[in-house]
Design goal:
The chain is of the alpha+beta class. It folds into 3 domains: 1-86 and 162-197 and 355-415, ATPase, nucleotide binding domain (Nucleotidyltransferase, domain 5, 2-Layer Sandwich), CATH 3.30.420; 87-161, Dna Ligase, domain 1 (2-Layer Sandwich), CATH 3.30.1490; 199-353, Nucleotidyltransferase, domain 5 (2-Layer Sandwich), CATH 3.30.420. 35% of the residues lie in helices and 28% in strands. It contains 11 helices and 18 strands. It has helices at residues 52-70, 106-117, 165-176, 188-196, 199-204, 236-247, 251-261, 290-314, 337-345, 371-385, 397-413; strands at 7-12, 16-24, 31-40, 44-45, 48-49, 76-81, 87-96, 125-137, 140-143, 153-164, 181-187, 206-211, 216-222, 225-232, 274-276, 287-289, 325-328, 349-351. β17 (325-328), α9 and β18 (349-351) form a beta-alpha-beta unit. The protein is globular.
Length: 415
């Protein structure tokens, strides 16, 4: 097995660090996952580093576990990052076609995408992704791929995703300190969309809602392109905190109650069903109604979805996405969440799992919390084959250039 074929996805979340190692299936049936591992994310808060030493040890323990499982050392990884510091903005680029006969080549596309990057980004931010949405050739709008066409003036409408330079550098520093090279830095929800969404869903119009521990990421697609991206500072951990306050109990017990008895639908709970707190801890006593727990969860889930709805309103897509809402991430496993999503968004809704995974010895990955880690492997595979559809077009090499420069910069820092 050639080392080049092995692709590692490293998803640094707000509550867990997850690593997935995979390769392209020889029969062409998608990605084969060879091993996965996870470790609690210490030294991280809402996707940002709060302690470099703790974060390095969390990443190290996850990487060591996957190396033990597969027997293959991790040398390169695709890094998935999140955090509320990540923002998106519209951009427009214009260039003249370089060839005298007016035929548009790949170089022209690279130049127009670079022109779109020259937007006024705040001084302390850096561009993570430039996602071309549609091209215009001499006033003919809505072109998806202008290569080979003839024209004089080439324009692009693009979505630019940027992150706070300091936060991005802190997270990449943590990974470099474990001795692993970074192949590319990818925004987590963008990677998750690669493993969870189908091309048809992206074409019709869909919103991917990734419910993490401390953040909820939203990505809206239409006609195969990213229409809007946002990361909200609220997640599944807030539900646990609400239960702890409401029941006057510890966070650990609140988490166990959420996992064992939690549901987001009050009407699904029998009226007199009770939860005895002694079964969770000897120090606790008393009885709470399960309906009360469901009320706490439902209120917080409605609040999260109302914030997501505001993002859809910003791009005039409230109630107008034919492929509906796809919920993924660890928080998506909460029973009753899909019904609340249908009610709040007035759209079809369902839980998204990693897809196009070949027969694999790892059962664990059929779980929405692994969608980002697996998506990073898919991202890496489609960049490696240079024929990934949708987002991972070869024309995003400009992003890899940025990480190349950053890698040199970090190497100079590490003693």
């Amino acid at each position: 097995m050639a080392r080049e074929e092995i692709i590692t996805g490293l998803d640094i979340g707000s509550s867990m660090v997850r690593v997935a190692m995979g390769q392209l299936d020889v029969n062409g049936r998608g990605i084969q996952i060879l091993g996965v591992a996870e470790a609690p994310a210490d030294g991280l808060n809402k996707g940002s580093v709060t302690s470099i030493e703790d974060a390095v040890s969390s990443v190290s323990s996850a990487l060591e576990a996957v190396e033990r499982m597969t027997g293959i050392p991790v040398e390169h990884a695709y890094l998935g990052i999140g955090g509320t510091h990540i923002s998106a903005q519209e951009s427009h680029g214009v260039v003249a076609v370089s060839k005298a006969d007016g035929e548009i080549k790949e170089e022209d596309i690279e130049r127009v995408v670079e022109a779109a990057q020259a937007v006024a980004t705040p001084p302390n931010y850096e561009i993570l992704h430039v996602l071309p949405r549609s091209f215009t050739v001499d006033n003919q709008k809505g072109i998806k791929d202008p290569v080979g066409m003839t024209g004089i003036r080439l324009e692009v409408d693009a979505q630019i995703i940027q992150g706070l330079s300091a936060q991005v550098k802190n997270i990449t520093k943590c990974v470099y300190r474990t001795g692993v090279d970074i192949s590319d830095v990818v925004v987590g929800v963008l990677a998750a969309s690669e493993s969870v969404l189908t091309k048809r869903q992206k074409d019709l119009g869909v919103a991917l809602v990734n419910l993490g521990g401390a953040t909820t990421s939203v990505l809206v697609f239409e006609e195969g392109d990213v229409l809007h991206a946002a990361i909200l500072p609220i997640g599944a951990a807030h539900i646990t905190n609400d239960i702890a306050i409401g029941l006057r109990t510890s966070i650990d017990i609140a988490e166990r109650i959420k996992l064992e008895y939690g549901t987001a639908l009050v009407n699904d709970v029998p009226k007199r069903e009770e939860i005895r707190l002694e079964e969770f801890s000897e120090q606790e006593n008393g009885v709470v109604e399960r309906k009360h727990v469901a009320e706490i969860i439902e209120a917080r889930c409605e609040e999260i979805f109302k914030m997501v709805e505001k993002e859809l309103v910003k791009v005039d897509r409230s109630g107008l996405l034919p492929a509906g809402i796809v919920l993924t991430g660890g928080g998506a496993k909460l029973p009753g969440l899909v019904e609340i999503a249908k009610r709040e968004f007035r759209l079809p809704a369902f839980v998204g799992y990693p897809q196009n995974i070949a027969q694999t010895p790892v059962d664990k990955i059929n779980d929405p919390s692994w969608s980002t880690a697996v998506g990073l492997v898919v991202w890496g595979a489609s960049l490696a084959t240079k024929q990934g559809g949708g987002l991972t077009m070869p024309r995003f090499s400009s992003v890899a250039d940025v990480t190349g420069k950053m890698r040199k910069w970090f190497k100079s820092l590490i003693p």
